[in-house]
Q: What sequence folds into this?
C-alpha cells in the first residue's frame, strides 16, 4: 500500500521542475483502497487529484465528482496527447460513454511479458538444437523422455508444464498457440473478435494436445499443478519446457544449478505453429486500469494537467523510474544505471523506488520497463530482446485491448459466459485425457456452446471492440 507522504524524495524533486508540491491525503493505514475511495466519495470532500481504478473514476466522473479532461489534455498536456494519438485503442478504452476522458492512465511502454524456456542442458544431453517448429518441439520433448535427459534411469521427464491459474487462461493456453489457437479474446486473421476454444480450428488443435498427452510430452498433472510448479519441477530436475514470465523464469538459472549441476534454461521464440506462423500470444496490456483524475473541487485544473503531463516527459519518466541522479542512479554511456546501494539492497528495485514516491501506478505515468534489465540475468535480457526484435508479440492473433462494456453487454456476458467457459474447460480436460471421440463429439460441442449463448457473448465483445476502434 503506497500512500503519498511528505518525505518522499521523488515528488519533492518533481516540484523543482513543476512548481507543484503534492500533499498526500490518503492514509497508509487504509489497507483497502476501494473502501478508502468509496469513503472519500461519500464524504464529498475531494482532494484536488485522486488516484483510482478507471471504472470508479468514470462512474463518479459522469456523476460530477471529476472533471472531463479532454480540453485540458489538448491545451496543456502535449506529451499525454501525443501518446493517446499514437494509441487510439488506449484513448478509446479510457473514454467514457459520454465521450469524456476522466482519468489519465498509467501506461506500459513495453509489451513483452512472457516467453518459452526450454532446458538447454537436456538439449545438449540428447544432442538436439532449440526447436524452431512445432514438429521439432514434439521430437525434442520425445527425445527428453526416450533418452533419459535427466539421467536418473527412469522414464520420468516432464515436457510441457505450467503454473498458470485457470482464472488467467487455461492450463494448456501456452501450448495451444502452437496449433494455431489463442485462448485469450483476440482478433482472428479476418480481423474479427474470437476466442480459441470456440473456433472450428480448435478441433485439430485439441486432437494434437491429446496426442502429445498420450505420448507423455505434457505434464500428467497439468490440470492440478499449482502456482509453485517451477519451484518443484526445476529443482527436482524434472521439467523441460515452460511458457512464463521472462524475468522470473530466467532467475532459476541462478538458484537451481546448486541443486541440479549444469541446469540451464534457454529462452526461445515461439516455435512456428502448424500453419507455419510464428506468434506470441502473451503480452502486457498497455493500460491496467490505474491512473489519476482531477476532482471538481480542484481550483487549479490547468496547473494540475501540466503537472500530470510532466510524468510523461522524458525527464518525468526517468525521475519516476530511476529516482534522482547522483542519489539513486548515475548516467553511464547515456543511460541511467542504478547506484550500487540500490542494486545491492535486499529489497527489490521497484519496492525501493516506490518507497521514494516513484513507480506508483495510481499516480499515472508512462512506465519504463528498462529497469527490469537490472533485475534480470543475461539469459533473461537476451530473451526479452529476442521477443522484442522479432516482432512476434501480438502477431497473427493479437490479444484484444482492454474493452469498456455497456451495462447491457456486461450483464449478458456475466449471465452467459461463465457457464460456457466452465463447459469449454471441462471438455478440454476430457479430450486431453482421451481424444478418441473428438471427431464424433466436436460438432455437438460447438452446438452446445451456441445454445448456451456463445454467439451472443462473442457479439458483445465484437460490439465493444468496434466501439473502441470507432467503427460505426
Ligand atoms: Ca529420467
A:
Amino acid at each position: 500500500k503506497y500512500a503519498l507522504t511528505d518525505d518522499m524524495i521523488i515528488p519533492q524533486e518533481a516540484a523543482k521542475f513543476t512548481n507543484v508540491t503534492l500533499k498526500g491525503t490518503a492514509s497508509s493505514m487504509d489497507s483497502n483502497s476501494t473502501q478508502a475511495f468509496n469513503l472519500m466519495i461519500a464524504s464529498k470532500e475531494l482532494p484536488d487529484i485522486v488516484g483510482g481504478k478507471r471504472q470508479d473514476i468514470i462512474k463518479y466522473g459522469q456523476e460530477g465528482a471529476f472533471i472531463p479532461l479532454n480540453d485540458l489534455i489538448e491545451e496543456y498536456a502535449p506529451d499525454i496527447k501525443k501518446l493517446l494519438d499514437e494509441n487510439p485503442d488506449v484513448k478509446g478504452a479510457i473514454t467514457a460513454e459520454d465521450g469524456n476522458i476522466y482519468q489519465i492512465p498509467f501506461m506500459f511502454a513495453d509489451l513483452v511479458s512472457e516467453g518459452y524456456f526450454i532446458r538447454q542442458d537436456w538439449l545438449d544431453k540428447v544432442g538436439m538444437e532449440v526447436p524452431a517448429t512445432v514438429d521439432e518441439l514434439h521430437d525434442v520433448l520425445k527425445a527428453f523422455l526416450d533418452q533419459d535427459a535427466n539421467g536418473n534411469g527412469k522414464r520420468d521427464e516432464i515436457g510441457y508444464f505450467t503454473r498458470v491459474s485457470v482464472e488467467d487462461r487455461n492450463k494448456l493456453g501456452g501450448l495451444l498457440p502452437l496449433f494455431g489457437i489463442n485462448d485469450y479474446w483476440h482478433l482472428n486473421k479476418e480481423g474479427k473478435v474470437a476466442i480459441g476454444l470456440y473456433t472450428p480450428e480448435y478441433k485439430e488443435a485439441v486432437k494434437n494436445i491429446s496426442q502429445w498427452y498420450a505420448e507423455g510430452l505434457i505434464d500428467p498433472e497439468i490440470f492440478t499443478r499449482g502456482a509453485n510448479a517451477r519451484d518443484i519441477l526445476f529443482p527436482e530436475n524434472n521439467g523441460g519446457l515452460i511458457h512464463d514470465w521472462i524475468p522470473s523464469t530466467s532467475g532459476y538459472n541462478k538458484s537451481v544449478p546448486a541443486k541440479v549441476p549444469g541446469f540451464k534454461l534457454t529462452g526461445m521464440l515461439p516455435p512456428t505453429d502448424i500453419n507455419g506462423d510464428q506468434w506470441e500470444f502473451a503480452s502486457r496490456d498497455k493500460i491496467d486500469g490505474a491512473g489519476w483524475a482531477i476532482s471538481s473541487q480542484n481550483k487549479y485544473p490547468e496547473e494540475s494537467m501540466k503537472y500530470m503531463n510532466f510524468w510523461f516527459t522524458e525527464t518525468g519518466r526517468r525521475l519516476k523510474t530511476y529516482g534522482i541522479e547522483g542519489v539513486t542512479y548515475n548516467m553511464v554511456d547515456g543511460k541511467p544505471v542504478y547506484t550500487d546501494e540500490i542494486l545491492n539492497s535486499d529489497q527489490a528495485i521497484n519496492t525501493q523506488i516506490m518507497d521514494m514516491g516513484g513507480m506508483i501506478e495510481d499516480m499515472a505515468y508512462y512506465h519504463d520497463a528498462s529497469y527490469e534489465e537490472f533485475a534480470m540475468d543475461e539469459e533473461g535480457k537476451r530473451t526479452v530482446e529476442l521477443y522484442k526484435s522479432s516482432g512476434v508479440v501480438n502477431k497473427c492473433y493479437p490479444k484484444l485491448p482492454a474493452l469498456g462494456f455497456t451495462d447491457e453487454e456486461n450483464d449478458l456476458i456475466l449471465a452467459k459466459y461463465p457457464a460456457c467457459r466452465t463447459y469449454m474447460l471441462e471438455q478440454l480436460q476430457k479430450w486431453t485425457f482421451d481424444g478418441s471421440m473428438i471427431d464424433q463429439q466436436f460438432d455437438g460441442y460447438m452446438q452446445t456452446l451456441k445454445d448456451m449463448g456463445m454467439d451472443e457473448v462473442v457479439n458483445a465483445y465484437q460490439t465493444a471492440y468496434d466501439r473502441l476502434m470507432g467503427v460505426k
Observations:
- The first strand starts at residue 49 and ends at 51.
- The chain has a mean pLDDT of 93.
- Residues 407-433 form the longest helix (27 residues).
